[in-house]
Specification:
Elements: H1 10-16, E1 27-28, E2 30-37, E3 45-51, E4 57-63, E5 70-76, E6 82-88, E7 97-104, E8 108-116, E9 122-130, E10 136-142, E11 151-157, E12 163-171, E13 173-181, E14 187-193, E15 205-211, E16 217-224, E17 230-237, E18 244-250, E19 256-263, E20 269-277, E21 279-287, E22 294-300, E23 304-313, E24 318-326, E25 337-344, E26 350-356, E27 366-372, E28 377-384, E29 392-399, E30 405-411, E31 417-426, E32 432-440, E33 446-453, E34 459-463, E35 476-480, E36 491-495, E37 502-516, E38 519-535, E39 542-545, E40 565-573, H2 575-578, E41 582-584, E42 587-591
Parallel strand pairs: 1-30
Antiparallel strand pairs: 2-33, 3-4, 4-5, 5-6, 7-8, 8-9, 9-10, 11-12, 12-13, 13-14, 15-16, 16-17, 17-18, 19-20, 20-21, 21-22, 23-24, 24-25, 25-26, 27-28, 28-29, 29-30, 31-32, 32-33, 34-42, 35-36, 36-39, 37-38, 37-40, 40-41, 40-42
């Protein structure tokens, strides 16, 4: 098994910000791209994406002209082939809109949104498709009453087939609404959340619904308080009858707007968004799943107008938040940057940050989603216009323990097209799927775009953080290429070693933690050196391709074969640590593939 990545303290996180920036990380190559034209409506494009246990990807979005939109839902095979595509045009033949998608038990796909009802007031729309064929099994329209506009924003299902929708209705302004239907589409209960603000300030919206491990739904609400400013509102409802199990509100006397929510395996709730505490900041909280009590609250800020856009959990104690930051606060020059933060799930302590983007007019870089993988990798995707890119989709692979950029993938737009990512998902093999869209700037035509990156790199994870015990520079080891023995392109990289000093990569069969020189030796057992030694550059960077056809990796006790796990480290002279001393990087464990 790959070891769990250790939590790297802030002392080494500062060194990780520019990791592998020179030379540039190797690019990922996408396995396939599937494009679905969806017309030129202002609302056209992707609204959600899910992947089932067979690796089939389902997307939903809006299609058609602006005056008469419809709901598009499609299924894409693991090889990128379009399996089926269905368009729903409601009985009023007018504005039908998708807003969310979910898989249900028994091989069904649900799509939530809205469709015009009698009098052309929007009704909640719930579509149910057979996953294999795309056959429309049911279409449910729900309305609380005449002259009421309502919509479904997010949809989730439980193990018994119950379907939950979070969205909105009209009361004294906008109110949040939660609905439950059974697996047959029969309505079971409705709950409305109406904040203390009066109209026209009462603008409450149900944004996200998730089902907790105990089977009860948890809903994230944008709720306006008596101060006439919004707060984060999270409500847990009983699945059986919709009774409120607990309700939590969080915010200060300013605009606190939630954008994303995730639940961990224990049912604890993590919410991120943008809050005003003197200036806009990423504002992230953890609530205890049993009673909604606040566990911690933390703020992240890099520049001006910082806006959190997405949150992800790795299941190993890491919380990842990504969003945009503006280096000068000038909205007119469009030069926002990516900013990604890791925090500790237990304490909220910040572990590292990662910044991407140039500070120039028109260098607009906007992240859309973040997803943490099981092998110590974190994926952040969005759109970039920083040179050498121009309105391209970009995906970063970051090391979960350090925030180091290991790889990046780019889908380039062809002028006058603009392309960007919206949502990230894994298939069963934890290959990455990206849902996004392209826009032709001349015609306004939009395409839903799904990109698959195959075997993304190597099954690798950092271990043995040396920085608390090392008096040197806290060197960090990573890799590029792949762990495919057949591809033979696995390259070790190190950053943060002493500059212009003699060094050597080595690898071994065991993980240890032993004082050695001015640092720690993390690799033990049978140990093999990768000759020849080399000298780090002026930034303390070094790299070494591991040639599987040459000794010691080719054969014998040091052979690197498919299915084997090896542990790597970098040794280097470090005069600053102890006169004529030496030091070591942390460790990197890698499982190799055929």
């Amino acid at each position: 098994m790959i070891p769990n990545p250790t939590i790297r303290p802030m002392a080494s996180a500062a060194l990780a910000l520019g990791l592998f920036s020179a030379p540039a990380p190797a690019d990922m190559t996408h396995e396939w791209i599937t494009r679905l034209p969806v017309g030129a409506a202002l609302s056209a494009g992707i609204q959600g994406m899910v992947v089932d246990a067979a690796g089939v990807t389902y997307v939903t979005g809006n299609t058609g002209p602006s005056g008469n939109t419809d709901v598009l839902t499609a299924a894409i095979a693991p090889d990128g082939t379009l399996l089926w595509s269905r368009v729903f045009n409601g009985p009023e033949d007018w504005h039908d809109q998708a807003r969310g998608i979910a898989l249900g038990p028994g091989g069904v796909v649900y799509v939530a949104g809205n469709t015009p009802g009698p009098g052309l007031y929007a009704n909640v729309l719930l579509l149910k498709y057979e996953a294999v064929s795309g056959t429309l099994l049911d279409s449910v329209q729900y309305s609380s009453g005449p002259f009421t506009s309502e919509h479904g924003q997010s949809v989730a299902t439980d193990a018994l087939g119950g379907v939950y929708l979070a969205g909105g209705t009209v009361g004294d302004g906008a109110d949040a609404m939660v609905l439950k239907f059974d697996a047959s589409g029969v309505f079971e209960w409705k709950r409305v959340w109406d904040g203390p603000a009066s109209a026209p300030y009462s603008q409450d919206h149900g944004r996200i619904v998730r089902v907790a491990p105990d089977g009860n739904p948890v809903v994230m609400i944008h709720g306006v308080m008596s101060s006439l400013h919004p707060d984060y509102v999270v409500v847990k409802y009983a699945a059986t009858d919709g009774a409120t199990m607990w309700e939590a509100t969080w915010g200060v006397s300013g605009e606190d707007s939630p954008t994303d929510m995730e639940l961990d395996a224990a049912g604890d709730v993590y919410v991120t968004g943008t809050g005003i505490q003197l200036t806009n900041k990423f504002s992230t909280i953890k609530l205890r799943g049993s009673d909604g009590q606040l566990v911690w609250q933390e703020y992240d800020s890099h520049d001006f107008r910082d806006h959190a856009r997405a949150l992800g959990l790795d299941g190993q104690g890491g919380v990842y938040i990504t969003g945009s930051v503006d280096p000068d606060g000038d909205q007119s020059n469009q030069n926002d940057n990516f900013y990604t933060v890791k925090r500790d799930a237990a304490t909220g302590a910040q572990r590292w940050t990662h910044l991407y983007g140039l500070n120039c007019i028109g260098c607009l870089d906007l992240p859309a989603d973040v997803l943490a993988g099981p092998a110590g990798h974190v994926f952040v995707a969005g759109s970039t216009s920083s040179a050498p890119y121009s309105a391209d989709m970009i995906t970063f692979v970051l090391d979960a323990s350090s925030g180091a950029e290991l790889k990046r993938g780019v889908v380039s737009a062809m002028a006058p097209e603009l392309v960007g990512a919206s949502v990230l998902r894994f298939d069963p093999a934890h290959d990455l799927l990206i849902g996004g869209q392209g826009l032709n700037a001349d015609t306004g035509a939009v395409e839903i775009t799904v990109v698959k990156y195959g075997s993304l790199a190597y099954a690798a994870a950092s271990f043995c953080d040396t920085s608390p015990d090392s008096t040197g520079s806290g060197a960090i080891i990573g890799a590029s290429g792949s762990a495919s023995v057949a591809a033979n392109d696995f390259t070790l990289l190190v950053h943060g070693a002493a500059a212009s000093e003699f060094g050597l990569f080595f690898y071994g069969t065991e993980q240890v933690r032993l004082p050695f020189g001015d640092g720690l030796r993390c690799v033990g057992g049978a140990v093999f050196r990768l000759h020849p030694p080399q000298t780090t550059d002026g930034l303390g960077f070094a790299s070494r391709r591991v040639d599987f056809t040459q000794p010691p990796a080719a054969s014998g006790p040091g052979a690197i074969a498919a299915g084997s796990l090896w542990n790597f480290q970098f040794w280097f002279r470090d005069p600053a640590a102890g006169g004529a001393g030496f030091n070591l990087s942390d460790g990197l464990a890698a499982i190799f593939l055929p």
